[in-house]
Amino acid sequence: MTYLEPTEEQRAHVLIQSNAHERLCTNKERRELTSISDSAWWRLEHANKVPPKIKLSVKKSAWRISSLLWFIKQLENPS
After folding, report:
1. DSSP 8-class letter at 56
2. Any residues with CB less than 8 A from the CB of 16 and at least 6 apart, and which?
3. What phi and psi values does residue 54 have, to the nearest 5 degrees?
4. Which helix (H) or strand (E) holds 36?
């Protein structure tokens, strides 16, 4: 299964369901939310099976909280 980014409507819905506001998450927060190790995430990322990271600088990346919540929802309720 290739990961597909949520639409703006889907983002809004998943944020409301989680009582969250859009923001960027660090790698530590990503690990806490998904419970997926860095090495496993790296493999999934290179297979396009997880949300893409946003490069902030040479050494820093982040993920949109709505993308991570959407990813988790897709794992819980596969179509």
Report:
1. -
2. none
3. -110, 120
4. none
